[in-house]
Each structure stands twice: as C-alpha cells, then as structure tokens.
C-alpha cells in the first residue's frame, strides 16, 4: 500500500535485542486468594500468571485474505503473504499448532472459527488467532462480504467454549478501523451462521465473566487506516514478529505488545506522492480482558516415557 521512508533492514538493525529495553519485574506478587488446592495440578506457584504447564501450547489460526470479489469494492492486499508467513513461523516457534487459511469467504470464516472453538483445548495453554484483511470499525472483510468481529470471536466466550474458560484467548487483527461508510449490507452479514447447538448454554453458576481472558491486539486505533507495505507486509505484523522473535519466550505478552506499539509509532512512516497520505503515522491498540500475565516459556520435555 505504501513505501516506507526507511528500509525494513535499517529498522531491524536498530531493533536488535540490545536496543530494546530489557524487561524488568515491575509486578508485586499478591498472595493467591482462596485455598492453595484451588489451583489446578501443575499450575505455576506464581499466582499472577496463567497456567502454561499444559502438555500443548494450543491452536493458532491465521485467516489471510488477499483477493476479494469485485462486489466488495476492495483491492488486492499485496504484501499480506509476507505477514502470514512471518506469523506462521513465529507462533510455531512459540509452540503453537498453526493452521493457515487463505482467501476465506464469510461462510468459511464462520465455519473455521466454530470448528476452532470446538477443538479439544483441554490439554492446551491457550488459543490464538490472527485475522489479516480489509475492515472498518467492528467489521472484517471476507473475500465475498463483511462479518462482524463479534461473530468471529463469539464462539470462544466462556458460555460457548467451556474448554477455554480461565485460559487466554488471543486475537491479533490487522485491518483498517475506519468509520462505517454508507454501505448497504446484506442482512446475512450480521448473522453468526451458528446453529442452535452453538447458542449460549449458561450454567447455573457462572464463576467467571464470559468476556474474561480475551485479548485483542489491533493494528490501529478506532477510526483510522492500517498501513501496509506491498513487499514487506503491514507495519503492525512486522513489528509484532520482530518482538516475538527477540522476546517471545522471555517477556510477558502485554509488555511485548507495548514494545510493538512503540516500534510502530516511532519507526514507521508512510512515503507516498499524494500529500494526504505522505508522512502518515499509525498507533496500534491493545484491548485486554486478561486476568493474569501471559508467558510463552519453553515447554519442558516429558521425561516419563
């Protein structure tokens, strides 16, 4: 979409592990509430961190939409393949089972997310998803239309996906968040496509809010465009992968995303002939409903076999 005034190589050279502030330990540990036996077997002694001692890291979904039906009015997203490839490598390095889907229709995106929610997460630390597409505030483009972001994330709520209750649900969204235009949306666009078996089944006693333990990392703040380079990929995903590569197993997740915010805010700037798109900046946005800290520490090998 744009050409950067600075090369990716020059940015990478300045963002070596020694150039980014080393993480400190700013958290004061609190005594865990309740009795000690309330913690799951294998849970860390650190009460402020999520239990990441399950056998598997978890499932990570990448939805990478590049080509769009002419009826959507959306252009090809050149450079998104580089984003998808980097994400696939980085999250595999963190131990995730990565599944990538390119050019997904609205029905396919809905099906992918429902099937992911129905995956057996009982032995997993968490769930993750990256959505790379065009968008406006609150909506994401499939290749043939638009979907509400709530439709895609709803299947993972605590009242719909019991296997992920108390576990992090991590969503990374690379898309514009401009205000909705005067589009005439198909009435199907706002329907979740979920059959009755996926409707909320509330338990008699709800121990945690259904919205708990979600994190949304957006490439930009509401009302703004999200910038992407036709060769190197989007600014946000480039920065995210740089930070994960250097600190993925050492730094807490929200700390990493704060580093991403700083890199995008200070190191990237658009370079275009058009005056209204030249020297533009971008600010990613973190929306967290996490209740503990997330550390992707390496899994210890099982020596029992």
From TrEMBL:
InterPro entries recorded: Caspase-like_dom_sf, Caspase_his_AS, Pept_C14, Pept_C14_caspase, Pept_C14_p10, Pept_C14_p20, Pept_C14A
GO biological process: apoptotic process; positive regulation of neuron apoptotic process; proteolysis
Domain Caspase family p10 residues, every copy: 204-298
Highest taxon above the source species: Eukaryota
UniProt enzyme class: hydrolase
Alphabetized SUPFAM superfamilies for the sequence: Caspase-like
Residues covered by the Caspase family p20 domain: 56-177
Family annotation (Pfam families): Peptidase_C14
Keywords (A to Z) from UniProt: Apoptosis, Hydrolase, Protease, Thiol protease, Zymogen
Molecular-function annotations in GO: cysteine-type endopeptidase activity
Gene Ontology CC: cytoplasm
Entry protein name: CASP7
């Amino acid at each position: 979409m744009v050409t950067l005034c600075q090369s990716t190589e020059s940015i990478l050279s300045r963002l070596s592990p020694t150039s980014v502030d080393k993480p400190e330990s700013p958290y004061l540990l609190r005594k865990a509430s309740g009795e000690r036996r309330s913690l799951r077997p294998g849970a860390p002694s650190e009460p402020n961190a999520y239990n990441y001692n399950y056998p598997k890291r978890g499932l990570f979904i990448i939805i990478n939409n590049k080509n769009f039906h002419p009826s959507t009015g959306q252009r090809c997203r050149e450079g998104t393949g580089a984003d998808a490839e980097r994400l696939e490598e980085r999250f595999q390095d963190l131990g995730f089972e990565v599944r990538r889907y390119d050019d997904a229709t609205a029905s396919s995106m809905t099906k992918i997310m429902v099937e992911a929610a129905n995956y057996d997460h009982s032995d997993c630390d968490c769930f993750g998803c990256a959505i790379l597409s065009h968008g406006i505030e609150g909506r994401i483009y499939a290749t043939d239309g638009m979907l509400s972001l709530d439709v895609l994330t709803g299947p993972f709520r605590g009242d719909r996906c019991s296997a992920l209750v108390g576990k992090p649900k991590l969503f990374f969204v690379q898309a514009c968040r401009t205000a909705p235009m005067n589009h005439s949306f198909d009435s199907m666009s706002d329907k979740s496509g979920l059959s009755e078996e996926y409707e909320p089944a509330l338990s008699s006693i709800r121990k945690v809010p259904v919205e708990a333990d979600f994190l949304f990392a957006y490439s930009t703040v509401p009302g703004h465009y999200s910038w992407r380079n036709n060769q190197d990929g989007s600014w946000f995903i480039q920065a995210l992968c740089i930070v994960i590569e250097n600190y993925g197993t050492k730094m807490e997740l929200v700390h990493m995303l704060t580093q991403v915010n700083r890199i995008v805010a200070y190191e990237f700037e658009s370079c275009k002939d058009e005056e209204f798109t030249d020297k533009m900046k971008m600010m990613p946005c973190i929306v967290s409903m996490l209740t503990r800290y997330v550390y992707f520490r390496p899994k210890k090998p099982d020596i029992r076999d």
